[in-house]
Amino acid sequence: MAHEELTCDAVVVGGGLAGLTAGIRLLELGLTPIVLEALTDKAFANNTRWSGGVFHLAFRSVVADPAELAERTVRMSDGFVTRELADVMARDCERSIRWLQGHGVEFVAMEPDEGWRDYVLSPLGYHDKPGLHWEDSGSDRMMRILVERYTSKGGTLRQGLKARELLSGPEGCTGLIAETTAGNVKISASAVILADGGFQGNPEMLRRFVTPHPERMLQRGPGTSAGDGVRLAEEAGAELIGMEYIYAHTLSADALHNDALWPFPFLDFVSAAGMMVDTEGRRFVDEGQNFVYLSNGVAHHEAANPPFAVFDDAIWQEAGRHFFWPPNPNLPESGGTLHQAGDIATLAGLAGLPPETLSATVSQYNAALADGTLGSLSPARSNAKEDARPITKPPFYAAPACVGLTHTMGGVKIDTDGRALRADNSAIPGLYAAGDVTGGLEGGPAIAYIGGLQQALIFGLRTAEAIKEARSA
């Protein structure tokens, strides 16, 4: 029995970007929402608040031609993202950004010449110092703005409530039961929007879907998303898709116990220019696809405990100085392990790898690169996203790595309105999903990252508008 009973038009599970966007839009459309946030602190942690604040779609500007955005999304994902979903995301990019700006959210062009970092939350959340620094970043400011806009418009934000069970009737989802320290709360509503993120903070779900060794991964986000929305949707009959894929970077293995080594520096770029080997000294993943593909390869490989990024001095001086707080010189200066030697066999000994195997791996790689036969390696090495470089100039380096998990990429299958779908593609009446709780918007076999913030914003708006349309029908 519930100690409290509430009624509203729509209950939104999760107070991140997707959830608050949906809440504000529902208010604008004349509906009465209740947004539930499991955390109780004022600056409740979530991936949105800790993000770098870059809004893009498929690494292109959100104001680019929609046809180009849609085509690139489908192509990058090798068709995993359907044309219908790609089209609506592409069409809604600019109007959703303008909606945010209309609520006082400010952007800055960070590197507009790259074609995709021209809408970054202001002020920038990237720093030239070690460790995590999110307070008063553009992402933190946006969250505070959205909370203020939602509550000032009369929206109800209930913190400390954790969604436990969906309610259903003959016409579909009719609300939910939430639990608090004081007891259960029953909320009756004609629609529920699941927007509480992925399941990166749930070791059991990570073991079920991603890897038998979640303890090897570092939570690069706050780790507050426990997969409740995914669980509730599955229990209601929704199909889950793309569940084995994660959005992650490769970091120093020492980041597991040294906070100065995350969220930066990445080992992505030195690994992509050189190679990633397992504890047996062998390559196990195509380093040239993209950094998310590489990280997933590490997460899924049993003998990556830890893996090592292996590269030479030319790579260290070029790729090693790329991006924010790069590994050269910040990795060793912040206490990260970086083995260095004048030859590969000695390097292997320092890293605890089999010298003959690592020497053969590097020799085969260099020969294939020189001959233009990288595709003949096992696994094949491509230059799809990152160009391979020879490992020939001493000194040589080996850096132990780990997966820095930001969020999971799989989740609830949805249609273009964010309605939760069953395996036969029929919609579950009254049940919607937005943000990282969804599946099918990125990931898939190509492990393509399409843009989490932009997707959350778009489907926060679209779910609210679909609920309004359903009530008006």
Q: Secondary-structure blueprint of this entry?
A:
Layout: E1 4-7, E2 10-13, H1 17-28, E3 33-37, H2 47-50, H3 66-76, H4 83-102, E4 107-108, E5 120-121, H5 138-152, E6 156-159, E7 162-169, E8 172-180, E9 183-188, E10 191-194, H6 203-209, E11 217-219, H7 228-235, E12 240-241, E13 246-252, H8 268-273, E14 275-277, H9 291-300, E15 308-312, H10 313-318, H11 327-333, E16 339-341, H12 344-351, H13 355-371, E17 396-408, E18 411-413, E19 419-421, E20 427-433, E21 438-439, H14 452-472
Parallel strand pairs: 1-9, 2-3, 2-10, 3-6, 10-20, 11-17, 18-21
Antiparallel strand pairs: 4-5, 7-8, 8-9, 12-18, 13-17, 14-15, 15-17, 16-17, 19-20
Helix pairs in contact: 1-5, 1-14, 3-4, 4-14, 12-13
